[in-house]
Design the sequence.
């Protein structure tokens, strides 16, 4: 059964352009529930660990530089089939190839500064949600204690 949560990051470029509100509205309008959220600036070390799978890629150093360059919003989003549904909503990694109406089409500046992150598998979503949030910071739709 597909999972019900995914991790998003609103990246420094989008935060500095005051796109937090517009992006969160689109996320809510597409039926995602925000079950955890924080505004913070990532250290280089945190970015290196978060994107460790890419450490051999030519864009890795630039990615670490950019992602630690200013504040970001990290959030857990819940919906049925969350990973696939959110990847569809954010669009292609390269905004010039993203479909109209996707978050990256609307808000990304370039493939490097592409507005948002979204988990790419349920397994990575687990790792990424645990990377940022403890259990007591999560307010899941599926937890009868909260809803
Ligand atoms: N990235 C980049 N140049 C590239 C490919 C990726 O700067 O040629 C950056 C971009 O910010 C991207 C991130 O590295 O979002 C992670 O790459 P991935 O292939 O995982 O893309 P995503 O899953 O974010 O669509
Ligand atoms: Mg990825």
Sequence:
């Amino acid at each position: 059964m597909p999972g019900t949560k995914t991790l998003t990051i609103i990246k420094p470029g989008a935060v500095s352009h005051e796109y937090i509100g517009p992006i969160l509205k689109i996320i809510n309008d597409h039926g995602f529930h925000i079950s955890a959220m924080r505004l913070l600036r990532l250290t280089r070390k945190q970015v290196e660990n978060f994107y460790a799978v890419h450490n051999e890629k030519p864009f890795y150093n630039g990615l670490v530089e950019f992602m630690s360059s200013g504040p970001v919003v990290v959030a857990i989003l819940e919906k049925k089939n969350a990973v696939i549904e959110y990847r569809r909503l954010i669009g292609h990694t390269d905004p010039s190839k993203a479909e109209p109406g996707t978050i990256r089409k609307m808000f990304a500046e370039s493939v490097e500064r592409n507005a948002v992150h979204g988990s790419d598998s349920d397994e990575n979503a687990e790792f990424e949600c645990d990377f940022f949030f403890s259990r007591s910071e999560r307010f899941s739709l599926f937890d009868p204690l909260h809803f």
